[in-house]
Protein 1
Amino acid sequence: MSKTVKIAIAGEGGQGVQAIAKILTEAAYGEGKEVLYIPNFGVEQRGGVSVAFVQISPEKISALKFQKADTVIALSARAVRRTMQYVDENSIFIYDSSIEGVAEEVAELQNTAKKVLSIPALQIVSEELHPRVFNMLIMGAVIGATKVVSLDGAYAALEHNLGAKFQKDPSLRDMNRNAIQRGYDLIEL
Amino acid sequence: MKKPIEKETRAYMTGNEVVAWAALAAQADIMYGYPITPQNEIMHYWTRLAPQFEREFLQTEDEASAGFTTLGGVMAGRRSFTGTSGPGHMIMQEAMCMAEMMRLPLVSIIQQRGGPSTATVIYSQQESTLACYGGNGEGFRVVYSTCNHQELFDYTIKAFNTAWKHFFPVFVLGDGYQAKMREPVTLYDPEARGVQMIPTKPLLGLPGTPGVDRDPAQLRNTYNTEEELFAVVEDLRKAYEEIVPQVAEYQTYDCDDCEYLIIAHGVVTRTAQEAVKNLRAKGIKAGHFRPVTLRPLAADALLPIACRAKKILVAESALGQVKRMITDGIYGCTTPIETLYKPGEGIYTEEIEAKVLAMAKGE
C-alpha cells in the first residue's frame, strides 16, 4: 500500500553509517522527496553498533519506526545480528563479504529474505580506491539496490557535505564519486 | 536587529536545530543550559547562531543552575529559555517549581530520553509526569507535546508567547527521536505570518521608589504560615484554571463515528494515525484523539468522544504516565480502556493495528 522505501544501515561506530544516511537522505530531499532519517546509537563514545533508519517517500511519512525494511545493509558481524530482525520475505539483505563468523545468520537470512547479497566492498576500497571511501561505496550499493535517488542527486548531496574538502583537494571528489559508482554497479538484482 | 529568517524557507535538519532556529525566530534573547544528550545540539546550534543575531548564551555548572539562571534572565525581562533531558530534567525541577510559585514565564525544551535514571539517550515518553507535575509543584504549567519538526518550530515560538501572556512556566516536550532525526520543515518569521511576539518586561528593578511611585515587585516563594500559603496556592489554582480554556489544545483524527478510540500523544500520534488509516481500510471504525497539551488536558473535548466509543486504547512509550492523566480527566466515562505500553521504546503501526483488531474481535 505504502510507496515508502524503508532502509536500515548498520555498522560499527566509525564506519560512517550515519554519514551515508545523512548524504543519502539529503539527496532524496534535494530531489523533492519526503524523507525521515533517525540515527540510533547507545551511550558509548565508540565501539557500539550504529544504526540508521531511513524512509524515503513521495508522500508525507507518518510512523517513525518500521518493523521490516525493504533494504538492510550490515557492515559488521554485530550489525548482521542486530539487523536480522528487520528482514522479511520482501527484504533485500546486503552485507560485506569480509565479515566473519556469520555463516549461521546468513543461512537463516537466506530463508527469510527475498534476496541476500554479499558484496566485496572492503576489498574493493582497500585494493582499488581508499579505505576512507568505504561508506560512499556502501551508499552507492544502497542506491543500486533501492534506486531511491539518482546518482547525480547523490553527487549533489556529496558536494553539499564535502565541497569544502573537495576545493582543497579535487582528487577527493573523483575518489568519492568513483566509490559511489562502484558500489552502485555491484548490485545486480 | 537583523531578522534570522527573512522569508519562508524549506529546510532539512535535526529537531534540535529546528528548536534553535525557532528560538531565534521568536526573538529569544538568551539560552542558559548544561549539556545532556539528546538535547545537546540545541545548545550547539544556538551558540553557533546566537552571536550572528546579537543573542547570548550562558553555560552553567549544572542543570539546577541552568534553571535558576533562566529564571534570573526572565526576571530581568529577557526572553530566556533552557533545554534539558532525563536526569537533567529532574535536577531542574526545583527552578521549574519556583517558576510556578512566582508566576515566572520560564520556557524549557525537553527532549525525553529513556528512564528511570540514566537509562538510554535514545527516546521515551517517560518524562510526561515530570514535565506536567514535577517537583513539589501542583502542575501549574503548560506542556506542549510535539509530534514532528514543524510542530517543534511552531510550538517553540508559541511557548514564549504562552509564557509571557499567562506567566506560567511552559514546556515543549519533545523526545530523542525528534531531537536527533532529520525531516523537512518550513522555517518562517512569526511576524510575517501575523504572529506578534508578546513584549517582555523586567519583573524586578523597576523604575521609581517601591511603595511611593509604584507597588513593590514582590516575588516570593517563602511563606510563614499554612494559611498564608494556602491562600497563595488557591490564587495560583484559580489563575491557572482561568487560562485552561485558552491554552488546552487537542487534535482529532476520524473521531466522528469512531468505535475504537486510540489515544496517543507526541510522536506516537503519527503511528496512531497511520494505524487508523489502515484499520479503516479493513472496515474497523477507528479514530485517534491526541492531547497536544498534556497539561492542561483538553478533557472537556475528550470526554464525549471517549464516552461514544466502544473501547479505548491508550498507546504510549511509558508505563501509563499519560493514561493516568486521561483516566483522571474523563472520570465517570465507562468505556473500557486497554493499553499498549512500551516504556522507552518506539511503537510500531502494526502493534497498534493488531491490538485494535484484537479488541474489535473481543479478545
Note: Strands of chain A lie at 5-12, 34-40, 49-57, 71-74, 92-96, 115-119.
Protein 2
Amino acid sequence: MTFVLRIVVVLLTLAGAQHAGAADFAKLVNALPHGSYHERADVVREIGKTGNPRAVEVLQALANDDLKVMADGTVVIVDDKTGAAVGAVEGASLGTPSADSLTRVRVNNMVRRAIRTATGMLTLRSPDPAKRLAAARDALRSASPDQIEALDAAIGAETDAGVKALLTEARAAAVLKTDAATTEKVAAIRLLEARGDEAARAALSPLATAKDPEIARAVTSALASIAETQRMWRLAQNVWYGLSLGSVLMLAAVGLAITFGVMGVINMAHGELVMLGAYTTFVVQQVIRADAPWLFGWSLAIAAPLAFVVAGAVGIAIERGIVRHLYGRPLETLLATWGVSLILQQAVRTIFGPDNRDVGNPGWMSGAFPLGQMQVTWNRLWILIFAFAVFAALLFVLKRTPIGLQMRAVTQNRAMAANMGIRTGRVDALTFGLGSAIAGLAGVALSQIDNVSPNLGQNYIVDSFMVVVFGGAGNIWGTMAGGFALGIANKFLEPFTGAVLGKIVILVGIILFIQKRPRGLFAVKGRAVEA
Amino acid sequence: MKVTRRTLLGGIAAAATAPIMMPRFALAAEDTIKVGILHSLSGTMAISETTLKDVMLMLIAEQNAKGGVLGKKLEPVVVDPASNWPLFAEKARELISQDHCAVVFGCWTSVSRKSVLPVFKELDNILFYPVQYEGQESERNVFYTGAAPNQQAIPAVDYLMSADGGSVKRWVLEGTDYVYPRTTNKILEAYLKSKGVPAEDIMINYTPFSFSDWQTEVSKIKAFGSAGKKTAVVSTINGDANVPFYKELGNQGIKAEDIPVVAFSVGEEELAGLDTKPLVGHLAAWNYFESIKTPENTTFIDAWHKFTGNPKRVTNDPMEAHYIGFNMWVKAVEKAGTTKADAVIDALPGIKTPNLTGGVSEMLPNHHISKPVYIGEIREDGQFDVVWQTKGLVPGQPWSPYLPESKDLVSDWVTLKCGNYDTVKKVCLGTKA
C-alpha cells in the first residue's frame, strides 16, 4: 500500500503542481487515510499545491479530526455536532452515517504543521482579512523559498495595510532562506530588524553564522537591536505579570484581611472557603452544561453571587458554631479552624472526588491579545479588574454603610459598641460572614487559573497570611499594597533567580521586614491597636 | 497567646489517639492472605493515589472470585498515609507488624518510597511500586513495576530528535523541584550532551509544588524557543501544577506544532480535569494508554467501569503497573507455594504475565520489568493517540549509563544477589552507596 502511495505522490510531483486537475485532487484525498504520518504530510503538501477550491476545507477537517473514512473507503468530512457527512472530494451530502462505521484519519504534529503551511498558502487570497492575517503569520513562521511566488502575488493584491506589512515580512523571511543576492538579503534583514519581535529573531538567528561577512554583520547587529527592544518589553511584561500575580494575592487575602486583620481571628479555614467558591462555580457550570448550554458565557456571573452566599453561609456557621466560643483564645481558634479546614477538605473530597474538576473558561476568559510585543491574557486581565471591583465594593461596605460602621465600632471597642445598642454577636457573625463570602468570590476567580481540587485552599492560605501580615493587619489598604508589592517583587525576581529561589528570597525579605516593622506596611495606630 | 501546658498536652494526646480510633477495613479472619494497600486517600496526593487503591480492591475482588490464592481468599487492608511522608513509614510498619500483610502495594512519590524503604528491609516484606520513577535504586524488597528512565524519558527524547518527532534541536527541561525531576533531568542532560546537543541549547527550570503562576515561565520558554531552532519542552512537572501550566500555554498561544511539550507525569487521569482543546498535539510518554485497543485492555476497562459504577472513570499507566504487579505476585506465590516473603522474592524474577497492551512483561533479576514504550499525542477528548512505539518490550534499567556515578553499576538479585554491583571494581557496593 505505502509503496503504491509513494509512487502516486512522486508521479504527481513530476506532473507538476499547476497541471494537477480535479482527478489528481481526488486521488490525493483518497490517499490521505493510508501510509505513515510522513507520507500523509507529503500528501497534504501536494493537496495544498493543487489549489483546488475544496482543498482548504478538506485540510481543515483533517486538522480538526473531522475527516473520516466510511466502511466502503469513501473519505468524508463529518460535522462534529450533527454527525452529517459530506464527500471530501466533491462535497455532496452523504447523510448521517453511524459513528461506528467511520474511522478517523489520524494526524500528528508533523502533519498538522504541513496542514498549517498548506492552508496558509491557500488562504493568502481569502476575502476575509482576519484569515489573510493568520495566513501571513503562518507564512512568516514557516518561511520557505517556494512560498515567495505566492507571497509576491498576494502582496500585489493586498489592500489591508497591516496584512501587507506582515506579508512583506514573511517574504523577507523566505528570501533569507534562498541564495538571493547579498543586497536583497540585507534589505530583508533590515525589514525584520524593524519588526523586532520573537518571530523576527527566529527567522534571523540561523543566519548569524552565514559565510557572507556582510550578511553575518547585518544579522548580528539586527539581533542585538532586537534583543534591546525585547529587553524593554520584557520589563513591561514583568510589571504586568507582577500586577496580575498581585491581584490574585490580594483577592485571596482580602477576605482574610477582614477575619484576621479586622476581627483578629486566625482563620485557618480561609483557604477552604476559597475552595468552596471554586466548587460552587463548578456546580453552576455543570448545571448550565446539562440544562442551558447557551448560558455558559454567563456562568461566572451567575456563580459569583452564589459563591458569595455559599461561602458566607459556611463562614457564619463556623463563627456561630465554633469561633464565637473561642474569642480571645488565639491558639484554640487556630486549632479549631484548622480542624474545620480538614473537615471541609475531606467533605469536598467525599462528595466530588479527589481529582481535579473541569471548570471551563468562557470565551471571553480565554486566549490573549497582543499589546505591543506583550501578550496579555484575557483571564489575567479580567481577574485584575475583578479584584479591584471586589476591593472597591468592600471598601464601600466598610466605610459608607451602617453595617460597616457597626463592624468597625465593634472591633474597635466592643463594650462601648454594646452599650450603644449594637448587637455585637450579630455583627461578629456578619463580619466573619463577609470575610468568608469574599473568600468565596476569590474562589470563582481562582477557578479560572488554578486547579479546582480539594487542595485548592491550601495553596493560598500561607500566601494570604503573608500578604495580610506584610500589609499590616487591620488595614485593608495595606492588604492591597502588600499584595501588589509582593506580586511585583516576585515577578521581578523570578527571571533571575527562578521560581523556587524567588519565593525563598521573598519569604526571607518578609521575615526581615517584620523584624523592623512588626505591624506591617500600614500599621493601625492609636488606641484601637490593643483593643 | 495563652499556651497552657494542659492545652498543649491535650492537643498532643488527641493527635496521638487519632490513628487508633480510625476505622479499619481489615476484619479479623484467620484463613485469609492479607494484602496491604498503602496509598494516600487524603492530602495532596489523594488525587492520584485514590484510583490505585480502587484498582487494587478490584484486582483482589477478581482474584477472590477466581478462588483466591493457594486456596485462601485475599483480604485487602487499606490504610491512609495522608500524603505525609513520615506517616508512610509508620503505616507500612503497621501493615506488616500488626496486620501481618504478605505483600504491600503502594506509594506514589519517590520521597514516600524512600521513607518506607528501611521498614521493608528491616521487617523483610515485599513492596510493589507502580509509578514511573527516576531510577538509581534497586532494593531486594521492592519490585518496581513503573517505568525506569530508559523506559520513558530516554525513548521520549529519542522520538523528539527523530524526523517524525520534529527533529528537535533545543530543549527545555521543566520540572517540579524534587527528587524525581532533578534526577531525571540530570540523566536527560547527560544523555542530550552525549548526543551532541550544546549546553546553550538546554535550559533547565524548576518550580515549587502546586505552582500556579506560570506567566513568567511560559514566556521564558517562548523566548527560548524563538532562536530559530526547533524547540521542545520535556516536562517533569508534578500533578497539581500541570493544569495551570497547560492553561497558560494555551492562553499564550503556544501550539504543539510550534513547541511540543512531552510530559512524564500527565496521563488520562490528570487530563480529566482540563479543557483539552488547546492542548491537542502535546505529548506524553507512558507504557500504557487507555486508547490502545487490545482484548485485554477492553476487558480491563469494562471491569473497571463496572467496579467503580462510573462509565467515565479513565484508566492510566500506574493502574496497569499494579495490574501487572499483582498478577506477577499471584503467580510467584503459586510457584513458591507459600506467601513467605523470602520465598516469593526468590520466585518473582522470571515470572511472566501479559500486560494490557498485547505483550508479555517479565520480572527481571534487577526487580524491574520489561514494558513497551508509547508516545501519545493528546486528543480533543482527553485521550491519547499513539504516534510512536518501541519495536518490542524494553527491559527496565535502574542504573543510568549516562551518569558517571552509576555507569558501571548493575543490579542482579538472582546470581549476584546485589542491587548495585560495580562491574569495574567487581564488588557489591551494598548499603554504602
Note: Confidence is low (pLDDT under 50) at residues 1-29 of chain B.
